[in-house]
Amino acid sequence: MQNSLRLIALSACLVIARPGLAQLGSWTAHTSMGNVTALADTGDQVWASTDGGVFYVDGQSRSIGTLTAVDGLHAVSAATIAYDEARSAVWVGYADGVLDRIDREAGSVVSYLDISRATRFSRRAINRTIVRGDSLFVCTEFGIVVFDPVLGEVRDSYSRLGTLPAATPVKDLTFAPDDQGVLSVWAATDRGLAIAPLGSANLQDPAVWRIEAPPVADTRAVVSFQGQMLVGTESDVYLRRAGGDFVPMGLDANAVSRLVAAGGLVVGVTPFQILTIDASMATSRFSLAEAGFPSDAVIAGGALWVASAGTGLLTLGVPPSGTFEAQQFSASFLPEGPSSSVFADLAAAPDGSLWAAGVLGGDSFHRLAADGSWANFSERTDNILQGKRSFTHVAVGDDGSGWVASEGGGVVRVLSEGPLELFNESNSSLRSAAGFPGFIVVGGVAAEPDGGLWATTRGSSVPLHYRSADGTWSALPPMVGEGLTSSATAYGVVYIDSFGQKWIILREESNFNLVKGLLVLDTGSDPADPADDSFRFFGTKGGGGQGLPGRGVKAVVEDRDGLVWIGTEEGLAYFVNTGVVARDPSAVAIWPQRSDRSEGTFLYLGLPINDLAVDPANRLWIATDDGVRVVTNAEDGFEEVLRLTTESSPLLSNAVLAIEIVADRGEAFLATDAGLVSVGIDAVSPAASPGDLFVFPNPVVLGSISEPSVTVRGLVDRTDVSIVSGLGEVVARFRTRGGQSRWDLRDFSGQLVPSGVYLVIAVAENGEGTAYGKIAVIR
User: Fold this and answer.
1) CA max distance for the chain
2) Which of 390, 399, 401 is nearest to 367 (CA)?
3) Which of 312, 336, 332 has its CA nearest to residue 29?
4) Phi and psi at residue 57, in whole multiples of 5°?
5) Rounded to whole angstroms, how far apart are CA atoms 734 and 744?
6) Does the structure show a pLDDT above 70 at 74?
7) Taking burial as the number of CB atoms within 10 A of a residue's CB, which of 241, 538, 721, 728 is the most buried?
8) What is the Cβ-side half-sphere exposure of residue 17, based on CA atoms within 13 angstroms?
9) In Å, how far are 392, 591, 609, 645 from 628, measured between CA atoms?
10) How many whole angstroms separate alpha carbon 193 and alpha carbon 171?
11) pLDDT class for 17, splitting at 50, 70, 90?
């Protein structure tokens, strides 16, 4: 069971006042929390910071709760975590120096930016946070910061520790008496331990600090245990004796990054093993079978909890001293989510699920089911994927099957049930790149409505491949003409329009990182026979409002009005899709013009575009490195109706790599370089034919809503909606696209309507018929 900790620091509903997109719904982050960076024991829960946010496991129920940047955390990737019992708060630290306070009782998150604003230091990452009384001692990349958790401000900082260079990073610290019994601060640095009396009048004075270095001076962790000091170094654990003598314990030749005293033991963490040391200095050393690399560990509730860099949070019984063989964990905890967070391509399936391709070099691809559950596919889950990586493009057939392109491994087919199927040279027309046997670089996949599949390759003599619905594969040679030669075989992303034309991005055969232009291909009556094919190639930069804004084409999508939009590295253009672009010598790309010319003539000219998508209301969603733009058709041109950035929304990063609209769910998925988020939108797929309208909320109480509106669902694609009062007077009228729209409960004059029952009449523009609904308004 997975709970969600709701936060009052950030609303989950973003209201947009601009025309064309009345309101966005709730936001959800879909990040991987498998890479756990640190742990904190609160007594009744174990909290984990991860690369995808924070989660906790309840000690009794074993239920999981999560927090992400969408819920108010400062960022996606959390580096450290600590529990503040006096204030019932959890403190989370980040690589940029920001410190979050999570109030467990209020459910709120507050971010403190003081450390991140210390711009005189180039590195400001938080490495560890230690709570002591009314202070937080924060180990940073430039020294020690003392933070006041009551006032919420930095109280002091120590960046010169004895003879160490200024701004030496501090990895860990503890408090313990020195050899004279004076309570002191012991700080672990890469040049040894920095030690100073805690009660010194001025810890900013370098003279009050002395330096002690074990034989391996790069210290990573330090803990006081049974009156002795244990130091984790780049190699092994050292026991400090009086006078500054350091004795190696011979536990591990690898770096010991964490030492924590709990449950009568010291638990240590290395990249491959867990260490334990008891009061008699007896030790254990063991790995965890079938688990990722450990990164932290605590003892809570009599059990050992291990943070894994890859598989989440693991728990097992504490092994007795003298244990040296691998141990099996008894339970694992990982919030629902993908096994990785960054995706290069997204595709919606007919059943409302979402497929997500990975990135170049990544080892997995994923499916998000309509019920919110994730399936992850990699060589760890499916033997057929052994050695296969870079699953960068994905398509979905009308039967719901997923088709995944691997840049090096061929094409993978995933059915709703049954094993995965891999297509390569042995069972398809796909061919290896010249000089690289077995290395098949698939640049794109696209599914036909009849069950056929198109795949492109790079580096072989046959760049285009067709698989018919009966499973027969055919290879097609490169298109020659219009400036293309037989050597132009680097085919990439492929998009199929409503007429069956293939829009294919071609790359430079001498440099796959560069785009050559855009090929529009009509494969004729027989897709497997190139003899009846026709094509146009657009490989030059246009000007004056026509032609491609640039050759670097990144994305192609067709809207509901038959415009095929082209996103390039230098802006946006569209073709009026007549169905014969591939054989029409006069076909030309057009630059969209702004409806408001005061902002310039052409919309987004010069803006690099990463991806495009169209929602059921025929709005164009544009992914860029500066957030998301949403555009709609307006009088005399096009206008922006929404802009999403990290400053205006819970978007995880402004670098948006891919966009997909899951129309049946009314949800937009935005893949950024920091992770995937989704947001509800005010448009869903239209109904096939008119039926009873569903209007909600119903009844609606105006005084209880700050931005009153109701949703009308069940519309066909193009509809004129009239709102009629109980007296038969039409009080409002509007035109819609898609299966859902909103009425702002205002009449023609802009005034909120009075109490009453109103009839909603939706007349289809294309003759499908009329649908009706009712709404009760209470003021």
Assistant:
1) 95
2) 401
3) 336
4) -120, 125
5) 11
6) yes
7) 538
8) 3
9) 21, 19, 10, 7
10) 10
11) very low
H or E element in which residue 606 lies: none
Residue 151, burial from CB neighbour count under 10 angstroms (0-12, 13-18, 19+) = exposed
Query: Can you tell me the distance from the alpha carbon of 219 to that of 31, in angstroms, rounded to the nearest whole number?
Result: 33
DSSP annotation of 755: S
SS3 71: helix
608 within 8 A of 555, measured Cβ to Cβ: no
d(CA 140, CA 121): 10
Residue where the block lists tokens 């560069």? 514
Single pTM value for the model: 0.85
Question: How many residues make up the chain in this entry?
Answer: 779
For the cut 90, the answer to whether the pLDDT of residue 417 exceeds it is: no
CA torsion sign for 474, 478, 481, 482 is positive
How does the average pLDDT of the chain come out, rounded? 92
- CB distance 564 to 556 below 8 Å: yes
Cis peptide leading into residue 697 (ω within 30°): yes
- What's the rounded Cα separation, in Å, for the pair 207 and 192? 16
Q: Say which amino acid occupies 466.
A: Y
Residue 459 vs residues 439, 467, 506: alpha-carbon distances, Å: 10, 20, 12
CA-to-CA distance for 194 and 189, rounded, in angstroms? 7
Beta strands at 770-778 and 700-701: parallel, antiparallel or unpaired: parallel
Cα–Cα distance measured from residue 342 to residue 364, given in angstroms and rounded to the nearest whole number: 10
**Integer angstrom CA distances of residue 734 from 663, 681, 683:** 21, 18, 15
Buried b (16+ CB within 10 A) or exposed e, 468-497: eeeeebbbbebbeeeebeeebbbbbbbbbb
Q: How far is CA 763 from CA 180, 232, 464, 746, 748, in A?
A: 89, 74, 45, 20, 19
Q: How many Cβ atoms are within 10 Å of 433's Cβ, its own excluded?
A: 19
The pLDDT tens digits for 670-683 are 999 999 999 998 87
Instruction: Give how far Cα 503 sits from Cα of 456, 492, 506, 598, Å.
Output: 11, 10, 10, 34
Per-residue DSSP letter, 478: P
Helix (H) or strand (E) holding 142: none
Q: Quickly tell me which residue has 């729209």 as its tokens.
A: 741
The structure tokens listed for 244 are 């500054």
Q: What are phi and psi of 265, to 5 degrees?
A: -135, 160
Residues 568-623 have pLDDT tens digits of 999 999 999 989 999 999 999 999 999 988 888 999 999 999 999 999 888 999 99
pLDDT in tens, 508-550: 998 999 999 999 999 999 999 999 999 999 999 999 999 999 9
- Mapping DSSP to helix (H, G, I), strand (E, B) and coil, where does residue 532 land? helix
Backbone CA torsion sign across 710, 713, 718, 721: negative
Neighbours of 428 (CB within 10 A): 21
CB 173 within 8 A of CB 139: yes
Residue 392 DSSP code: E
CB-facing half-sphere around the CA of 372: CA atoms within 13 A:
8
Cα–Cα distance for residue pair 304/696, rounded to 1 Å: 50
Question: Cα 632–634–640 angle (5° rounding)?
Answer: 45
CA 365, distance to chain mean position in Å, is: 13
- C-alpha 58 chain-centroid distance: 26
3-state secondary structure of 408: strand
What DSSP character marks residue 69? G
CA distance 522 to 582: 6
Q: Is 582 helix (H, G, I), strand (E, B) or coil?
A: helix
DSSP 3-state of 201 = coil
Cα 336 to its chain centre, rounded Å, is: 14
Whole-angstrom distance, CA of residue 770 vs CA of residue 758: 16
The torsion angle over the Cα atoms of residues 308, 312, 313 and 319, rounded to 10 degrees, is: -40
Return the H-helix or E-strand segment holding 235. none
Contact between residue 13 and residue 6 where contact means Cβ atoms under 8 Å apart: no
